[in-house]
Amino acid sequence: MDKLLSMKVFVSAIDLGSFTAAAAANDMSPTMVGKHIRYLEQQLETALIHRTTRRQGPTEAGKEYYARCREILASLLEAELISKRLNRGPVGEIRLSAPVAFGNRLLTPLIAAFLQHHPYINIEAVLTDRKVDVVAEQFQLAFRIGAILDEGLIAHPLPDYRMVLAAAPGYLARHGVPKHPRDLSRHNCFSFSQWRHNARWRLLGPDGEHEIALSPRLRIDSGEAIRQAALAGFGIALQSDVVLQDDLQSGALVRVLPDYAPPARPMWLLRLPAHPVSVKIDAFSTFVIETLHRRQATPC
């Protein structure tokens, strides 16, 4: 017999006071109710209900078992309701990681827009420029710039992360405007310190590819700090067009060698390889991927 059904029938018999009422509540005959009770008693090797011709009631063991059965059945019902709710719509917590500059400039407004339309989702966004361990640090999603090694994760491509050269007008007035990539070796140049070959910039332009050896006086592991150093007039920054877009439009920074740029860096949204994908993860991932592709930044 189905033990959970037998427990449900037993609880009904105690709650309703008779096998007949329990039978009606469970759409079965009183005889079948009796079979379910006897099944439980055989399994437990003890009587659960005192039965006489006039009345019935739980034994001491029956009272204890009744309380446990109610707890189990209530927990089962709660689990079923949660499962149904999760399948109907996005519910729950999402923990994600993203680079600081990307998170500040692009992702945070998207998160706010998403949450406004999904009131039963909460998001914890950890903005860091280090490469997080998605599994060990219990992230469900991670935004990653650059090549992806095989980490056993599902990688969804996002619009490429485009880079530009920029500097403050004051710096260029003091040190001159580079006319060709080879001129950069005579300037203060800086970029993200965690990138490989930070001391060499590979630029593509109308006359082909150039690899420029640099001796950077400043190494920074924060995209926003690179922006601030450029605004302070320290030198020429290699940074994302998204991060510098407002400054370029306002004139606080100007493009340097606008016909040259490094190859665009691929960007990814990583997730754990769960099957099926939870509703909340699928909803958020789809929203971000589609929105970023629609809003893909135009060249500055």
Automatic annotation (TrEMBL):
This is DNA-binding transcriptional LysR family regulator. Gene3D superfamilies: 3.40.190.290, Winged helix-like DNA-binding domain superfamily/Winged helix DNA-binding domain. Belongs to the LysR transcriptional regulatory family. InterPro entries: LysR-type_TF_proteobact-type, LysR_HTH_N, LysR_subst-bd, WH-like_DNA-bd_sf, WH_DNA-bd_sf. It comes from the Bacteria. Residues 1-23 form the signal peptide. One of its GO terms (molecular function) is DNA-binding transcription factor activity. SUPFAM superfamilies: Periplasmic binding protein-like II, Winged helix' DNA-binding domain. Residues 1-59 form the HTH lysR-type domain. It comes from Biostraticola tofi. GO terms for biological process: DNA-templated transcription. Pfam families: HTH_1 (PF00126), LysR_substrate (PF03466). Keywords: DNA-binding, Signal, Transcription, Transcription regulation.
